[in-house]
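REVIEWER CHECKLIST
Item 1: Sequence provided? yes
Item 2: Single chain? yes
Item 3: Sequence as submitted:
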Amino acid sequence: MSTTTSNPLAGALFDSSVMLRRNFTHITRSPVTIFNAALMPVMMMLIFVYVFGDAFDVGENYIDYAVPGMLMLAISYGLSGTAVSVSSDMTKGVINRFKVMDVSRGAVLTGHVAASIVTNVIALTAVLGVGFALGFRSPASAVQWLGALGVLLATAFAAAWLTVALGMAAKTPEAAGMSVVPLLMLPFLSSAIVPAEKMGPGVRQFAEYQPFTPIIESVRGFLAGTPSGGHTVAAFAWCAGFAVIGYVWSRSTFSKRV
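Item 4: Structure as written out by the authors:
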């Protein structure tokens, strides 16, 4: 696993690909991680559509309303595994082994980010597949589908970097798993399950102005064939902010700890 090459960029990309393969292999060998990342969002969608769906008046077929929110949940539920994996590398001496093997330091972080995004893509695919099986239909054009995918991938990228930073900062893997709980809870306090305007005072205002609501509404608009420029701009702005904070924080913590 050496990065010895005449091209530093090529060496870094090679190291990142090796770290991606390593991290994704670990994910596939962890039943709990697979359940949380791919199966839990599907179960949540089944519960909300079949158990609670008739209780929600959202002005349209509930499955059509719920799928964008469940896609956001699919991203959130895969984050705890990433945080625990990063923390385990930092606390169990794995990083020291990589240093001896002359692995690019940046590759250690980008490998976790890439593995998180791959896991998210699998979870998003599973949610969409089940959504179509349950009756979800979208009038969106190919370009609008690409817009929705772009927002989701930007969210997965930003959330991955923020999660890596939280995992780096945690003292133990257990603490790392707990550190992402707010990211798991925020979608439930957004417009993922019911429109924000149907919530009670206080909760409604929080739901309207928290970061996940414009992201979900942007995806919902694209999939409904009526994209919202305002929500999309806000979504990408939140994603850019989270990505920058996560990147700077994780690199700073990584430099201090190794």
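Item 5: Key structural point noted by reviewer: The chain is about 75% helix and 0% strand.
Item 6: Recommendation: ____
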